[in-house]
Amino acid sequence: MAKDDDVLDGLEVYRVGGAVRDELLGWPVFDNDWVVVGATAEEMTRRGFKPVGRDFPVFLHPQSLEEYALARTERKAGHGYTGFEVHASPEVTLEEDLSRRDLTINAIAQAPEGTLVDPFDGQADIARRLLRHVSLAFAEDPLRVLRTARFLARYAGLGFRIADETLALMRAMSARGELAHLAAERVWVETEKALKEPTPEHYFHALKACDALESWWPGLAARLDAALALLPRAPSSHAPLEHWRMALMASALDEAGREALIARLRLPNAVAALCRQVALTRALVATPLDAEAVFHWLERLDAFRKPEQVKAQLALVKTLSPERAPPLARAFESVRKVNPQVLMAEGLSGGELGRALRTRRETAVVAAVEGG
After folding, report:
1. CB under 8 Å, gap of 24 or more: what pairs does 336-343 form?
2. At what angle are helices 241-250 and 255-265 packed, to 10 degrees?
3. DSSP states of 124-160 as a string?
4. What is the pLDDT of residue 147?
5. With the CA atoms of 49, 52, 58 and 59 taken in that order, what torsion angle do they form, in degrees rounded to the nearest 10?
6. Residue 58 β-bridge partners
7. Which positions fall inside the Poly A polymerase head domain (predicted)?
8. Least buried of 27, 261, 275, 281, by fewest C-beta within 10 Å?
Protein backbone atom coordinates (compact mmCIF):
# COMPACT_ATOMS: atom_id res chain seq x y z
CA MET A 1 0.00 0.00 0.00
CA ALA A 2 0.98 3.65 -0.21
CA LYS A 3 3.71 4.76 2.14
CA ASP A 4 3.10 7.60 4.57
CA ASP A 5 4.93 10.66 3.30
CA ASP A 6 4.45 14.39 3.12
CA VAL A 7 3.40 14.21 -0.51
CA LEU A 8 0.37 12.04 0.32
CA ASP A 9 -0.45 13.55 3.69
CA GLY A 10 -4.10 14.63 3.77
CA LEU A 11 -5.02 13.09 0.40
CA GLU A 12 -7.82 10.52 0.07
CA VAL A 13 -5.97 7.82 -1.86
CA TYR A 14 -6.96 4.29 -2.88
CA ARG A 15 -5.11 1.55 -4.67
CA VAL A 16 -7.27 0.37 -7.57
CA GLY A 17 -7.55 -1.97 -10.52
CA GLY A 18 -5.21 -4.78 -11.40
CA ALA A 19 -3.01 -4.65 -8.32
CA VAL A 20 -5.99 -5.18 -6.01
CA ARG A 21 -7.48 -7.87 -8.25
CA ASP A 22 -4.26 -9.83 -8.60
CA GLU A 23 -3.43 -9.63 -4.89
CA LEU A 24 -6.84 -11.13 -4.10
CA LEU A 25 -6.20 -13.85 -6.68
CA GLY A 26 -2.71 -14.62 -5.42
CA TRP A 27 -1.36 -13.52 -8.80
CA PRO A 28 1.96 -11.63 -9.01
CA VAL A 29 1.58 -7.86 -8.60
CA PHE A 30 4.11 -5.76 -10.52
CA ASP A 31 2.58 -2.28 -10.61
CA ASN A 32 0.27 -0.22 -8.46
CA ASP A 33 -2.27 2.30 -9.72
CA TRP A 34 -3.87 4.83 -7.42
CA VAL A 35 -6.93 7.05 -7.53
CA VAL A 36 -7.14 10.31 -5.61
CA VAL A 37 -10.56 11.52 -4.47
CA GLY A 38 -11.35 15.14 -3.64
CA ALA A 39 -8.21 16.74 -5.10
CA THR A 40 -7.49 19.07 -8.00
CA ALA A 41 -4.78 19.00 -10.64
CA GLU A 42 -3.32 22.18 -9.18
CA GLU A 43 -3.02 20.59 -5.75
CA MET A 44 -1.30 17.51 -7.15
CA THR A 45 1.22 19.66 -9.01
CA ARG A 46 1.81 21.77 -5.91
CA ARG A 47 2.66 18.61 -3.96
CA GLY A 48 5.33 17.69 -6.49
CA PHE A 49 3.43 15.20 -8.68
CA LYS A 50 4.36 15.28 -12.35
CA PRO A 51 1.41 15.45 -14.78
CA VAL A 52 1.65 12.83 -17.55
CA GLY A 53 -1.92 12.21 -18.70
CA ARG A 54 -2.88 13.55 -22.12
CA ASP A 55 -6.59 12.72 -22.05
CA PHE A 56 -7.25 12.79 -18.32
CA PRO A 57 -5.41 13.92 -15.17
CA VAL A 58 -2.75 11.32 -14.27
CA PHE A 59 0.34 12.15 -12.22
CA LEU A 60 3.57 10.42 -11.27
CA HIS A 61 4.54 10.30 -7.61
CA PRO A 62 7.78 12.29 -7.20
CA GLN A 63 9.55 9.42 -5.41
CA SER A 64 7.93 6.09 -6.36
CA LEU A 65 6.94 7.21 -9.91
CA GLU A 66 3.70 5.24 -9.51
CA GLU A 67 0.63 6.60 -11.25
CA TYR A 68 -1.97 8.61 -9.34
CA ALA A 69 -5.13 9.57 -11.25
CA LEU A 70 -7.80 11.98 -10.10
CA ALA A 71 -11.21 10.38 -9.65
CA ARG A 72 -13.14 10.89 -12.87
CA THR A 73 -16.24 10.01 -14.83
CA GLU A 74 -16.53 9.45 -18.58
CA ARG A 75 -19.24 10.08 -21.12
CA LYS A 76 -19.28 8.57 -24.61
CA ALA A 77 -19.01 11.22 -27.32
CA GLY A 78 -17.83 9.30 -30.40
CA HIS A 79 -16.95 5.93 -31.90
CA GLY A 80 -14.27 3.47 -30.89
CA TYR A 81 -12.20 3.26 -27.74
CA THR A 82 -11.49 7.01 -27.90
CA GLY A 83 -14.18 9.65 -28.17
CA PHE A 84 -14.86 9.94 -24.42
CA GLU A 85 -15.50 13.17 -22.56
CA VAL A 86 -13.69 12.98 -19.22
CA HIS A 87 -14.80 14.86 -16.14
CA ALA A 88 -12.41 15.03 -13.18
CA SER A 89 -13.17 17.18 -10.19
CA PRO A 90 -13.09 17.04 -6.37
CA GLU A 91 -16.82 16.24 -6.45
CA VAL A 92 -16.37 12.87 -8.23
CA THR A 93 -16.76 10.06 -5.71
CA LEU A 94 -14.78 6.84 -5.50
CA GLU A 95 -17.84 4.80 -6.45
CA GLU A 96 -18.44 6.99 -9.51
CA ASP A 97 -14.84 6.45 -10.56
CA LEU A 98 -15.11 2.67 -10.09
CA SER A 99 -18.40 2.55 -12.01
CA ARG A 100 -16.66 3.55 -15.28
CA ARG A 101 -14.39 0.47 -15.18
CA ASP A 102 -14.89 -2.54 -17.42
CA LEU A 103 -15.19 -5.62 -15.19
CA THR A 104 -16.26 -5.98 -11.59
CA ILE A 105 -12.98 -7.67 -10.66
CA ASN A 106 -11.24 -4.49 -11.82
CA ALA A 107 -13.57 -2.20 -9.88
CA ILE A 108 -12.31 -2.91 -6.36
CA ALA A 109 -10.41 -0.25 -4.41
CA GLN A 110 -8.23 -0.58 -1.32
CA ALA A 111 -7.73 2.09 1.30
CA PRO A 112 -4.26 2.66 2.80
CA GLU A 113 -5.13 0.66 5.93
CA GLY A 114 -6.24 -2.28 3.77
CA THR A 115 -10.03 -1.85 3.77
CA LEU A 116 -11.61 -2.93 0.48
CA VAL A 117 -14.23 -0.82 -1.26
CA ASP A 118 -16.24 -3.09 -3.57
CA PRO A 119 -19.53 -1.51 -4.69
CA PHE A 120 -20.04 -3.90 -7.63
CA ASP A 121 -19.34 -7.24 -5.90
CA GLY A 122 -16.01 -7.86 -7.58
CA GLN A 123 -14.89 -10.07 -4.68
CA ALA A 124 -17.93 -12.28 -5.16
CA ASP A 125 -17.14 -12.58 -8.87
CA ILE A 126 -13.55 -13.51 -8.02
CA ALA A 127 -14.93 -16.26 -5.80
CA ARG A 128 -17.33 -17.36 -8.56
CA ARG A 129 -14.52 -17.06 -11.15
CA LEU A 130 -16.62 -14.73 -13.33
CA LEU A 131 -15.60 -11.98 -15.73
CA ARG A 132 -18.68 -9.74 -15.51
CA HIS A 133 -19.19 -6.18 -16.75
CA VAL A 134 -19.75 -3.41 -14.22
CA SER A 135 -22.55 -1.68 -16.13
CA LEU A 136 -24.03 -1.25 -19.60
CA ALA A 137 -21.41 1.48 -20.15
CA PHE A 138 -19.17 -1.48 -21.03
CA ALA A 139 -20.80 -1.35 -24.49
CA GLU A 140 -19.47 2.17 -25.11
CA ASP A 141 -15.90 0.94 -25.59
CA PRO A 142 -15.32 -1.87 -28.12
CA LEU A 143 -11.78 -2.35 -26.85
CA ARG A 144 -13.35 -3.95 -23.79
CA VAL A 145 -14.37 -6.93 -25.91
CA LEU A 146 -10.68 -7.63 -26.55
CA ARG A 147 -9.67 -6.85 -22.96
CA THR A 148 -12.24 -9.26 -21.57
CA ALA A 149 -11.03 -11.98 -23.93
CA ARG A 150 -7.45 -11.20 -22.85
CA PHE A 151 -8.32 -11.53 -19.17
CA LEU A 152 -9.83 -14.92 -19.96
CA ALA A 153 -6.52 -15.93 -21.58
CA ARG A 154 -4.81 -15.00 -18.32
CA TYR A 155 -7.19 -16.46 -15.78
CA ALA A 156 -8.89 -19.41 -17.51
CA GLY A 157 -6.43 -21.70 -15.78
CA LEU A 158 -7.86 -20.51 -12.46
CA GLY A 159 -11.35 -21.52 -13.58
CA PHE A 160 -12.60 -18.15 -14.83
CA ARG A 161 -15.24 -17.80 -17.53
CA ILE A 162 -17.04 -14.87 -19.11
CA ALA A 163 -20.47 -14.29 -17.56
CA ASP A 164 -23.32 -15.17 -19.90
CA GLU A 165 -24.74 -11.64 -19.80
CA THR A 166 -21.32 -10.15 -20.55
CA LEU A 167 -20.78 -12.51 -23.49
CA ALA A 168 -24.21 -11.55 -24.80
CA LEU A 169 -23.26 -7.87 -24.55
CA MET A 170 -19.98 -8.54 -26.37
CA ARG A 171 -21.88 -10.36 -29.10
CA ALA A 172 -24.30 -7.44 -29.48
CA MET A 173 -21.39 -5.00 -29.77
CA SER A 174 -19.84 -7.17 -32.45
CA ALA A 175 -23.12 -7.39 -34.35
CA ARG A 176 -23.37 -3.59 -34.41
CA GLY A 177 -19.92 -3.38 -36.01
CA GLU A 178 -18.41 -1.57 -33.03
CA LEU A 179 -15.08 -3.37 -33.33
CA ALA A 180 -14.56 -1.93 -36.81
CA HIS A 181 -13.95 1.47 -35.20
CA LEU A 182 -10.84 0.24 -33.38
CA ALA A 183 -7.39 1.19 -34.66
CA ALA A 184 -5.40 -1.74 -36.03
CA GLU A 185 -2.43 -0.83 -33.87
CA ARG A 186 -4.57 -1.01 -30.73
CA VAL A 187 -6.00 -4.38 -31.74
CA TRP A 188 -2.48 -5.70 -32.20
CA VAL A 189 -1.38 -4.38 -28.79
CA GLU A 190 -4.22 -6.26 -27.08
CA THR A 191 -3.56 -9.39 -29.15
CA GLU A 192 0.15 -9.25 -28.44
CA LYS A 193 -0.59 -9.06 -24.72
CA ALA A 194 -3.03 -11.98 -24.99
CA LEU A 195 -0.41 -14.08 -26.78
CA LYS A 196 1.87 -13.66 -23.75
CA GLU A 197 -0.74 -15.08 -21.39
CA PRO A 198 -0.72 -18.69 -20.06
CA THR A 199 -3.64 -19.85 -22.25
CA PRO A 200 -3.80 -17.56 -25.32
CA GLU A 201 -6.16 -19.93 -27.08
CA HIS A 202 -8.95 -18.69 -24.79
CA TYR A 203 -8.56 -15.18 -26.22
CA PHE A 204 -9.41 -16.41 -29.71
CA HIS A 205 -12.12 -18.80 -28.55
CA ALA A 206 -13.81 -15.94 -26.68
CA LEU A 207 -13.67 -13.67 -29.73
CA LYS A 208 -15.11 -16.42 -31.90
CA ALA A 209 -17.88 -17.01 -29.35
CA CYS A 210 -18.98 -13.38 -29.63
CA ASP A 211 -18.64 -13.31 -33.45
CA ALA A 212 -15.74 -10.85 -33.29
CA LEU A 213 -13.02 -12.95 -34.88
CA GLU A 214 -13.71 -12.23 -38.55
CA SER A 215 -13.68 -8.48 -37.93
CA TRP A 216 -9.93 -8.38 -37.35
CA TRP A 217 -8.57 -11.85 -38.12
CA PRO A 218 -9.74 -12.48 -41.70
CA GLY A 219 -9.78 -16.12 -42.61
CA LEU A 220 -8.69 -17.33 -39.19
CA ALA A 221 -12.12 -18.30 -37.93
CA ALA A 222 -12.37 -21.21 -40.36
CA ARG A 223 -8.84 -22.37 -39.52
CA LEU A 224 -8.87 -21.57 -35.82
CA ASP A 225 -8.43 -25.07 -34.42
CA ALA A 226 -5.51 -25.79 -36.76
CA ALA A 227 -3.91 -22.45 -35.95
CA LEU A 228 -4.27 -22.85 -32.17
CA ALA A 229 -2.85 -26.38 -32.32
CA LEU A 230 0.46 -24.82 -33.40
CA LEU A 231 0.86 -22.61 -30.32
CA PRO A 232 2.73 -25.23 -28.22
CA ARG A 233 5.37 -25.41 -30.99
CA ALA A 234 6.65 -21.92 -30.30
CA PRO A 235 10.40 -21.89 -29.53
CA SER A 236 11.72 -20.21 -26.40
CA SER A 237 14.55 -18.29 -28.07
CA HIS A 238 15.48 -15.90 -30.89
CA ALA A 239 12.17 -14.00 -30.82
CA PRO A 240 9.55 -13.06 -28.19
CA LEU A 241 7.16 -15.90 -27.40
CA GLU A 242 4.13 -13.85 -28.40
CA HIS A 243 5.65 -13.14 -31.83
CA TRP A 244 6.39 -16.82 -32.42
CA ARG A 245 2.81 -17.62 -31.47
CA MET A 246 1.41 -15.03 -33.87
CA ALA A 247 3.63 -16.29 -36.68
CA LEU A 248 2.66 -19.90 -36.08
CA MET A 249 -1.05 -19.07 -36.16
CA ALA A 250 -0.58 -17.06 -39.36
CA SER A 251 1.22 -20.01 -40.93
CA ALA A 252 -2.03 -22.00 -40.77
CA LEU A 253 -3.38 -19.73 -43.54
CA ASP A 254 -2.49 -19.78 -47.20
CA GLU A 255 -0.30 -16.99 -48.54
CA ALA A 256 -3.20 -14.73 -49.47
CA GLY A 257 -4.85 -15.21 -46.10
CA ARG A 258 -1.58 -14.64 -44.29
CA GLU A 259 -0.88 -11.40 -46.14
CA ALA A 260 -4.44 -10.23 -45.50
CA LEU A 261 -3.95 -10.84 -41.79
CA ILE A 262 -0.62 -8.98 -41.76
CA ALA A 263 -2.19 -6.04 -43.55
CA ARG A 264 -5.37 -5.99 -41.48
CA LEU A 265 -3.51 -5.88 -38.17
CA ARG A 266 -0.74 -3.68 -39.55
CA LEU A 267 1.74 -5.98 -37.90
CA PRO A 268 5.17 -4.51 -37.12
CA ASN A 269 7.75 -5.30 -39.80
CA ALA A 270 9.64 -7.76 -37.60
CA VAL A 271 6.47 -9.72 -36.78
CA ALA A 272 5.31 -9.72 -40.39
CA ALA A 273 8.73 -11.00 -41.50
CA LEU A 274 8.60 -13.75 -38.88
CA CYS A 275 5.14 -14.78 -40.12
CA ARG A 276 6.51 -15.25 -43.63
CA GLN A 277 9.63 -17.08 -42.44
CA VAL A 278 7.65 -19.48 -40.27
CA ALA A 279 5.41 -20.29 -43.23
CA LEU A 280 8.54 -21.13 -45.28
CA THR A 281 9.86 -23.40 -42.56
CA ARG A 282 6.57 -25.21 -42.02
CA ALA A 283 6.30 -25.83 -45.76
CA LEU A 284 9.85 -27.22 -45.83
CA VAL A 285 9.41 -29.69 -42.96
CA ALA A 286 6.06 -30.86 -44.34
CA THR A 287 7.66 -32.33 -47.49
CA PRO A 288 10.35 -34.97 -48.08
CA LEU A 289 13.87 -33.71 -47.49
CA ASP A 290 15.21 -32.35 -50.76
CA ALA A 291 18.49 -30.49 -51.33
CA GLU A 292 16.98 -28.08 -53.86
CA ALA A 293 14.16 -27.16 -51.47
CA VAL A 294 16.65 -26.66 -48.62
CA PHE A 295 18.78 -24.34 -50.75
CA HIS A 296 15.68 -22.38 -51.74
CA TRP A 297 14.73 -22.12 -48.03
CA LEU A 298 18.18 -20.76 -47.17
CA GLU A 299 18.00 -18.24 -50.00
CA ARG A 300 14.54 -17.02 -48.96
CA LEU A 301 15.80 -16.59 -45.40
CA ASP A 302 18.72 -14.52 -46.73
CA ALA A 303 21.05 -16.95 -44.98
CA PHE A 304 24.22 -15.47 -46.43
CA ARG A 305 23.61 -11.94 -45.14
CA LYS A 306 21.29 -12.57 -42.18
CA PRO A 307 22.36 -15.84 -40.55
CA GLU A 308 20.42 -15.03 -37.36
CA GLN A 309 17.19 -15.54 -39.32
CA VAL A 310 18.23 -19.08 -40.15
CA LYS A 311 19.29 -19.78 -36.57
CA ALA A 312 15.85 -18.68 -35.40
CA GLN A 313 14.13 -20.97 -37.89
CA LEU A 314 16.37 -23.87 -36.89
CA ALA A 315 15.10 -23.37 -33.34
CA LEU A 316 11.57 -23.70 -34.75
CA VAL A 317 12.50 -26.83 -36.71
CA LYS A 318 13.55 -28.47 -33.43
CA THR A 319 9.99 -28.05 -32.14
CA LEU A 320 8.22 -28.92 -35.39
CA SER A 321 10.31 -31.82 -36.67
CA PRO A 322 13.33 -32.59 -34.48
CA GLU A 323 14.73 -35.19 -36.90
CA ARG A 324 14.99 -32.48 -39.58
CA ALA A 325 17.11 -30.15 -37.45
CA PRO A 326 20.51 -31.91 -37.89
CA PRO A 327 20.54 -32.07 -41.73
CA LEU A 328 19.25 -28.51 -42.03
CA ALA A 329 21.86 -27.28 -39.55
CA ARG A 330 24.56 -29.11 -41.53
CA ALA A 331 23.37 -27.53 -44.76
CA PHE A 332 23.44 -24.09 -43.18
CA GLU A 333 26.96 -24.55 -41.83
CA SER A 334 28.14 -25.95 -45.15
CA VAL A 335 27.02 -22.97 -47.22
CA ARG A 336 28.56 -20.59 -44.69
CA LYS A 337 31.93 -22.22 -45.30
CA VAL A 338 31.85 -21.34 -48.99
CA ASN A 339 34.19 -18.34 -49.02
CA PRO A 340 33.84 -15.76 -51.81
CA GLN A 341 37.42 -14.66 -51.15
CA VAL A 342 38.68 -18.08 -52.23
CA LEU A 343 36.83 -17.79 -55.52
CA MET A 344 38.15 -14.29 -56.07
CA ALA A 345 41.67 -15.60 -55.44
CA GLU A 346 41.01 -18.06 -58.26
CA GLY A 347 40.50 -15.09 -60.54
CA LEU A 348 36.71 -15.04 -60.65
CA SER A 349 34.83 -11.74 -60.64
CA GLY A 350 31.53 -10.14 -61.60
CA GLY A 351 28.77 -12.39 -62.87
CA GLU A 352 31.14 -15.32 -63.14
CA LEU A 353 31.92 -15.00 -59.44
CA GLY A 354 28.22 -14.91 -58.55
CA ARG A 355 27.41 -17.99 -60.59
CA ALA A 356 30.35 -19.93 -59.18
CA LEU A 357 29.42 -18.92 -55.63
CA ARG A 358 25.85 -20.13 -56.10
CA THR A 359 27.02 -23.42 -57.66
CA ARG A 360 29.40 -24.20 -54.80
CA ARG A 361 26.77 -23.37 -52.22
CA GLU A 362 24.30 -25.64 -53.97
CA THR A 363 26.92 -28.42 -54.04
CA ALA A 364 27.56 -27.89 -50.32
CA VAL A 365 23.86 -28.24 -49.54
CA VAL A 366 23.57 -31.43 -51.61
CA ALA A 367 26.55 -32.95 -49.77
CA ALA A 368 25.09 -31.99 -46.39
CA VAL A 369 21.56 -33.22 -47.11
CA GLU A 370 22.23 -36.32 -49.19
CA GLY A 371 25.56 -37.28 -47.72
CA GLY A 372 24.24 -37.26 -44.16
Report:
1. 336/303, 336/304, 336/307, 337/364, 338/364
2. 130
3. HHHHHTEE-BSSGGGGG-THHHHHHHHHHHHHGGGT-
4. 97
5. -10
6. 69
7. 14-132
8. 27
Residue type, 250: A
CA geometry: angle at 202 spanning 246 and 190, to 5°?
Answer: 55
Give the ranges where 35-179 is alpha helix by DSSP (H).
Answer: 41-46, 94-99, 122-128, 143-155, 164-175
Bridge partners for 252 per DSSP: none
Does the reported pTM lie above 0.85? yes
Question: Is the separation of the CB atoms in 99 and 75 below 8 Å?
Answer: no
Query: What does the pLDDT look like over 239-257, one tens digit per residue?
Result: 999 999 999 999 999 999 9
**Domain residues of the chain, as ranges?**
1-120, 258-372
pLDDT grade for 259, boundaries at 50, 70 and 90? very high
What's the CATH number for 1-120?
Answer: 3.30.460.10
Residue type, 300: R
Asked whether the predicted pLDDT for residue 83 surpasses 60, the reply is: no
d(CA 371, CA 206): 49
d(Cα 213, Cα 119) in Å, to the nearest integer? 33
d(CA 117, CA 35): 12
130 and 160 in contact (C-beta within 8 Å)?
yes
